[in-house]
Amino acid sequence: MAPHDLHPITVAIERRIDPSAAAEAMDWMHTGTELAGGFDGFLGSGWVRSGEGSDLWYMLYRFRDITTLESWEQSPERSSWLAAGRGFAHEVRSERRTGIEGWFDAPRATHVEPSGSRPTDDTATGPVQQPVPAAPPRWKQAVTIWLGFFPTNLLASWLLGYVPGFDEWPLVGRILLTTVLLTPLMTYAILPFVTRMLRPWLQRRR
After folding, report:
1. With contact defined as beta carbons under 8 Å apart, do 104 and 55 qualify?
2. In this structure, what DSSP letter does residue 27 have?
3. Where are the transmembrane segments (predicted)?
4. Residue 36, CA distances (Å) to 70, 81, 102, 169, 188 in order
5. Is 53 left (phi over 0), alpha (psi -120 to 50) or beta?
6. Domain range list for the chain
7. CATH number for the domain running over 3-109
């Protein structure tokens, strides 16, 4: 398996829903979330409508890696669920996001309508009706990555300086060890923390 296949993957799906079947569609969406939640590697999901009265609905779900995602996507449970919605739901497009793109936009999308939160009465309106937010500009992503990488790399370099003989290692060996240590730390701890702290700034529009 290639290294990039180990990153969490977010799938964004745009569907057109028959307005006359909105209530049925909400139950169908919740059922899909609950089914996906029973699969290994499921990290969360959410769905929104593009606006009041719009027939465009967006569903997002996230899995730990490509293997667990494909296990869900190729499952008979998902096939049966999709078949149940064919009468009122029509897929327009689907997009997978991983790596840096996933760090910045997936956490915002996967909590719009939490798993298992069904409407409690006939007056419930379902999920928040707002557009799915786009990823921040590339320059903001670059600044965010740098803010996480610089102090982490500085601390790692300082600590490794205490390893006996480390300064005498070949340059390639020192960089190899440093990147092996820092890559998982950045992916699973530092970047999620930094993006969470900078969320208001990352989401801010002009």
Report:
1. no
2. H
3. 143-163, 175-198
4. 11, 10, 19, 48, 22
5. left
6. 3-109, 138-203
7. 3.30.70.100
